[in-house]
């Protein structure tokens, strides 16, 4: 079956944090600023420790395949900080909005690759385990980089309500891409357990990308493994 669409993981495939922990630090700063504006007298140490607990809870839920939404993360943080009423709302808003306008480290050659694939008539999508930085913010960051117009469909975990490798998050993107069949789609991502396993279970072609991070964990290997996005169009053409 000819390939009609390509879906991309976001983190460590399209882009990465310029420095490890950038989004965590942005949340820490945003929550502290909101605390100061409300005269809550929360210390940086307490906010940091509570934030790290929430991040650890999200990591555990992700590994277990049990979705923890950004809103639930914000509520968990407010509970840990023992906040009430208006303070909860303000701190939650700071937590959820952190990262907006941040600068990403864009994967080398991703722009040229997207342009080439789109120019060949392929529909392009995103399938992303968004963590606490939701799809709305991530799409805004892609727009800032001039990359969002290449994509016409997506499945972000905070909007779908599940993480990869669940079929639903891939299917959400495929539905937005016009209902393209999995067998006519190639998915590219960096993680074996989520990207590769999820794509293969659904019958999609799979490419593991190592250009920003090499997943050395156990799990299925991609049908193809690349270190340079410029190799992707040739792979897609060979499958069509």
Written account of the structure:
- The protein folds into 2 domains: 5-18 and 103-239, Rossmann fold (3-Layer(aba) Sandwich); 22-97.
- Helices cover 48% and strands 13% of the residues.
- It has helices spanning 22-37, 44-64, 70-80, 85-97, 110-119, 135-144, 157-160, 167-176, 192-202, 232-239, and strands spanning 5-8, 15-16, 105-106, 123-128, 153-156, 185-189, 205-209, 224-226.
- The strands form 2 sheets. Strands 5-4-1-6-7-8 form a 6-stranded parallel β-sheet, with helices on both faces.
- Helix 9 links the parallel strand 6 (185-189) and strand 7 (205-209).
- It is elongated and about 60 Å long.
- It starts with a strand and ends with a helix.
Summarize the structure.
This protein is an alpha/beta fold and 240 residues long. 48% of the residues lie in helices and 13% in strands. The chain starts with a strand and ends with a helix.
Total number of β-strand segments? Answer: 8
Strand order of the largest sheet: 5-4-1-6-7-8
CATH topology of the largest domain: Rossmann fold
CATH architecture descriptor name of the largest domain = 3-Layer(aba) Sandwich
Mean of residue pLDDT values: 96
* String of helices and strands: EEHHHHEHEHEHHEHEEH
Low-confidence stretches are none
- Tell me, what's the shape? elongated
The radius of gyration is 19 Å
Give the class-level CATH name of the largest domain: Alpha Beta
First-last Cα distance: 7 Å
CATH homolog superfamily of the largest domain: HAD superfamily/HAD-like
Any idea how many domains?
A: 2
Q: What percentage of amino acids are in beta strands?
A: 5-15%
Percent of residues in helices: 40-55%
Largest sheet: 6 strands, parallel
């Amino acid at each position: 079956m000819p390939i009609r669409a390509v879906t991309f993981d976001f983190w460590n495939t399209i882009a990465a944090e310029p420095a490890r922990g950038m989004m965590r630090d942005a949340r820490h700063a945003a929550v502290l600023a909101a605390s100061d504006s409300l005269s809550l007298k929360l210390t940086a140490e307490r906010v940091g420790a509570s934030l790290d607990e929430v991040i650890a809870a999200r990591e555990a839920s992700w590994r277990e395949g049990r979705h923890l939404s950004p809103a639930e993360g914000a509520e968990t943080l407010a509970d840990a900080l023992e906040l009430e009423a208006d303070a909860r709302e303000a701190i939650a808003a700071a937590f959820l909005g952190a990262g907006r306008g941040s600068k990403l480290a864009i994967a080398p050659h991703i722009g040229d690759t997207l342009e080439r694939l789109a120019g060949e008539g392929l529909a392009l999508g995103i399938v992303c385990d968004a963590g606490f930085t939701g799809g709305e913010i991530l799409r805004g960051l892609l727009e800032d980089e001039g990359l969002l117009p290449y994509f016409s469909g997506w499945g972000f975990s905070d909007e779908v309500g599940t993480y990869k490798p669940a079929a639903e998050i891939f299917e959400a993107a495929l539905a937005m891409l016009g209902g393209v069949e999995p067998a006519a789609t190639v998915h590219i991502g960096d993680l074996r357990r989520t990207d590769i396993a999820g794509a293969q279970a659904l019958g999609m072609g799979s490419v593991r990308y190592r250009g920003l991070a090499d997943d050395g964990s156990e799990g299925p290997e991609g049908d193809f493994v690349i270190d340079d996005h410029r190799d992707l169009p040739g792979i897609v053409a060979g499958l069509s």
